Amino acid sequence: MNEEIKKDNKLLVIDDDQHVLDSIINLLKGSEYNIITATGTKEGIATMMKEKPPVVLTDLKMEKEHSGIQILDDAKRWDPDVVVILYTAHGDISVTRDAFKKGAFDFIQKVQTHQDIIIPLERAFKYAHVKRENQYLKEQLNVEDEGAFHGAVGRSPAMLELFNQVKRVAQTNANVLVTGETGTGKEIIARGIHHYSQRKNAPFVPVVVSTLPDNLLEGELFGHVKGAYTGAVSDKPGLFESANKGTIFLDEIGEVPIDMQPKLLRVLQERKVRRLGSLKERPLDVRIISATNKSPEKLIKEQKLREDLYFRLNVVKVHLPPLRERREDIPLLAYHFLKQYRDIGLVEIEKISDEALILLEEYDWPGNVRQLQNAVESAVAVATKPVIMPEDLPEPLRPKTSRVFVDTSGSPDFKTAKSKVVQAFERQYLEKLLKKYDNNISKVAEAAELNRKTIYRMIDQLGIEIRNKSNEE
């Protein structure tokens, strides 16, 4: 990973009371954060400029009224990407709104337990990392892909180890079995093995077994002679012969009919192939890479894959982890695909918004890399701005919304009617949650699956009054 976007766990805590600083340090004992403290506003600003922390946690009121706001202002002037969290023991909704307008990430009250502080910090560090990584990846759009490996992209430990394994295996002639869920990129890895092998200048022949009808599969793989069957009007070499001196890639190997597997096994053992209708055997010098998205052991148990064939194919196994197990690769992959598709839409896309990138990282991607590729292509096609926004993403990735009743009485124009419905829904929804949780903003935000900053902004925009201010947090 590039040094510029390594995760930085430096946390600056600012307060004019040493006892409070000690208390916060104690609450964060055992956490992964590298905690730096500063006493008061002046020392806090100086330390922030020297240490360059991604996240700052500061008291709102110190030796000067609203001095936390002063730190917020200076921090945003010095580094717009720095994430600032304010905390106080005394709630003031007007000050809270002002802080969010100035760019505060979060506002904490009652810092008394580990949970009071650790959850906002986890969100803040994740957001800080996404912003910095996003900026770096945007700058890389017009340069060579970082983390690219002959078409495969990744920088997670699992993928870096896999790339090293592929390079080692490529130097041998061993058969390789590539396993992994659908869409993880098994053919790309197979091509990488071929590329780094001594066979790189010979053919690479991919075969998706499931796309060939059972009655034609043998002829396609092994070839046929004229008259071998109806329609065989001339001699034809099979795909194995076409891959001679090179590599043949048999995808979905579990789909080979069980009665044809002994013939495939014989080719692997003898390194000879006999065309349909011929008695002549032709020598083969070919490397076999096979792949499956199913458990080979389960296929054997279900008698869909011969055990002896499996052992011949599985001299070396390479496993591709699903995308949900290597989420740190998602931003890199998203920008890799953005580079491919950025000019296919109505506007040329310059970047992916921080909010959209977070949604991409949090999604589980059942279709893996292929689904992510399709999602980026779709977003580029529908985006109307140079930045991909959450609403440009395919429906499963967008923030959840609820259906509301639309009253068209009075025949208002569409824009006005929509605005009224949305406002009415938001007001009713928030008022019910505020009542349910006794104006506890943290609980409201958690229930709504929104951050507290958004809740405060909506309260302000909708003019919702919070009478019991002591219970706002």
Brief summary:
With 473 residues, this protein is α/β, with parallel strands linked by helices. The chain is built from 18 helices and 18 strands.
How would you characterize this protein structure?
It is a single chain. The protein has 473 residues and is an alpha/beta fold. The protein has four domains: 3-139, Rossmann fold, CATH 3.40.50; 171-321, Rossmann fold; 324-397, Orthogonal Bundle (Helicase, Ruva Protein, domain 3), CATH 1.10.8; 414-471, Arc Repressor Mutant, subunit A. The chain contains 18 helices and 18 strands. The protein has helices spanning 18-27, 40-51, 67-78, 93-101, 114-139, 157-170, 186-195, 214-222, 239-242, 261-270, 296-301, 307-313, 330-341, 354-362, 368-382, 414-436, 441-448, 452-462, and strands at residues 10-15, 34-39, 55-59, 83-88, 106-109, 148-149, 152-153, 176-179, 204-208, 223-224, 236-237, 247-251, 272-274, 281-283, 287-292, 316-319, 351-352, 387-388. The protein has a five-stranded parallel sheet, sandwiched between helices. A five-stranded parallel sheet has the order 9-12-15-8-16. Helix 2 (40-51) runs parallel beside helix 3 (67-78), helix 13 (330-341) packs across helix 15 (368-382) and helix 17 crosses helix 18. Residues 1-5, 401-409 and 468-473 have low confidence and may be disordered.
